[in-house]
Write a structure and sequence with these properties.
Blueprint: H1 7-11, H2 29-34, E1 37-39, H3 42-47, H4 61-77, E2 81-86, H5 93-105, E3 110-114, H6 122-126, H7 134-138, E4 147-151, E5 154-159, H8 168-172, H9 175-187, E6 192-196, H10 205-209, E7 215-221, H11 227-237, E8 242-248, E9 264-266
Parallel strand pairs: 1-4, 2-6, 2-7, 3-5, 3-6, 7-8
Antiparallel strand pairs: 4-5, 8-9
Helix pairs in contact: 4-5
């Protein structure tokens, strides 16, 4: 989504949610990506812990409940960009972001944006190699190219990262980053944008990104996330609204207020 290009250029890149994407499974995967089409493979998704495209999979149910909470919030506040983060790495933020976006895509226009420039994982988990990404726009590309990821009847728009960036904070603090997120809001009007972001306590990337999002979901892993790290993360995120915490891999028994293995709690 170029910040300087005209909207007519994006009209050639984007398909309306009601449009039919025509592709042949025999097509070369690279040529499909060049056309902005990514046919997803269910077996590959399951190997990468992406379950919520299949709502009959019991592992998807916590994310169906979580999407209802998210949609309730976006419906009452007009929030559009929802960041998913954690205090530190390997606490499940990308897992939650991917599955939340997949669950949302069943019932609502949804975009999934990889903004973890140091450690991108969205494209790899979905099983494709992006030719462009939000990083290439930040480096000077004319446009951010969204990809339409299709599995059966579900359609998820993805803005990926082409390659990891060592100087991520510098890129995120640049004027082009502000233009990127402003244009995302315009192009994804009416959609919920799930943004996979860097961890809160890993550098200042998320502190820079927070100004561009409307709210945050904070992923906490039972037995791993320290209470001190959680408190510090909430302090750093303020005044950005925190929708709540998602307790990943909980050791607690499942009770009525919990949603499967990945319970949701409102922020304190």
């Amino acid at each position: 989504m170029s910040m300087s290009t005209s909207m007519s250029m994006f009209d050639t890149l984007l398909l309306a949610e009601s449009d039919t994407i025509a592709w042949d499974p025999r097509d070369d995967p690279i040529s499909l990506v060049e056309r902005g089409i990514v046919p997803l493979q269910r077996a590959n998704l399951v190997r990468n812990d992406v379950y919520a495209f299949a709502m009959d999979d019991p592992r998807s149910q916590p994310f169906a409940m979580l999407r209802s909470r998210v949609l309730r919030h976006t419906g009452t506040t007009q929030a559009q960009l929802i960041a998913v983060t954690s205090a530190k790495p390997r606490e499940g933020k990308s897992f939650v972001a991917l599955n939340l976006a997949a669950a949302l895509s069943h019932i609502h226009p949804t975009w999934l944006i990889d903004a973890d420039l140091r450690n991108p994982s969205i494209a790899r988990r979905l099983g494709f190699t992006p030719l462009h990404g939000i990083d290439t726009f930040l480096h000077g590309d004319d446009a951010i190219v969204p990809l339409r990821c299709r599995l059966d009847t579900d359609l998820l728009t993805v803005v990926a990262i082409h390659e990891a960036q060592a100087e991520s904070a510098k890129l995120l603090a640049s004027p082009r980053a502000g233009k990127a997120f402003a244009t995302l809001r315009t192009l994804a009007a009416g959609a919920v944008c799930v943004v996979d972001t860097p961890p809160v306590l890993e550098g200042d990337d998320l502190m820079i990104l927070a100004q561009h999002v409307d709210a945050v979901l904070l992923v906490v892993e039972e037995g791993r996330t320290l209470h001190a790290d959680l408190r510090e993360s909430l302090r750093i995120l303020s005044p950005t609204p925190v929708l709540g915490t998602v307790l990943n891999r909980t050791l607690l028994p499942v009770r009525a207020q919990y949603y499967g293995q990945y319970p949701y709690r409102s922020a304190p």
